[in-house]
From TrEMBL:
The keyword Nucleus is assigned to this record: yes
Protein name (Swiss-Prot/TrEMBL): RST domain-containing protein
Recorded coiled-coil stretches: none
Classification of source organism: Eukaryota, Viridiplantae, Streptophyta, Embryophyta, Tracheophyta
RST domain sequence ranges: 33-104
InterPro entries xref list: RST (IPR022003)
Pfam families on file: RST
Main localization category: nucleus
Length: 148
């Protein structure tokens, strides 16, 4: 599977579904979101911390991050050094929680917009328009035998 060619935030998975009654195997491709964790990209953490910390501390943190990128030390060592510079674990924890809350709200908004679009498609009474839009919106999720 070539993940580099796809969107970095999504993985493509192939699922084989079998049926015991007719001994057929149906192949279906599903796009699955990558698992989310409480980690925040270091560049975004640095940008957010720059709003709260003194510029001298930010200069030190940027040097630490550059050292990590140059493979001078591990991620764990980088995190410990940044914690020593910041001297306030609550600030780091609040920053990570803020970032995760923002990501969750974006995902909810996208799901709402998609649901709103689907309800508008179904509410439109023009058959030809609705038929084309339904094929566009739903056929990629249906098995090929059903679409015909």
């Amino acid at each position: 599977m070539d993940i580099g060619a796809q969107d970095e935030s999504k993985l493509k998975t192939t699922i084989l579904m079998g049926s015991s009654s007719n001994n057929r195997t149906v192949e279906s491709t599903v796009i699955v979101e990558k698992p989310m964790s409480s980690f925040i990209p270091m560049t975004k953490l640095i940008v957010i911390l720059s709003k709260f910390l003194h510029p001298k501390k930010m200069h030190v943190i940027k040097k630490i991050h550059k050292g990590y990128l140059d493979k001078k030390f591990t991620r764990r060592e980088m995190v410990n050094l940044i914690r020593k510079v910041v001297r306030d674990d609550d600030l780091i924890v609040k920053t990570i929680k803020y970032f995760n809350k923002k990501a969750v709200s974006k995902a909810l908004f996208r799901a709402h917009v998609e649901g709103q679009l689907k309800s508008e498609i179904m509410a439109n009474s023009d058959y030809h328009y609705t038929n084309k839009m339904m094929h566009y919106a739903f056929n990629r999720y249906l098995q090929s035998e059903i679409v015909r």
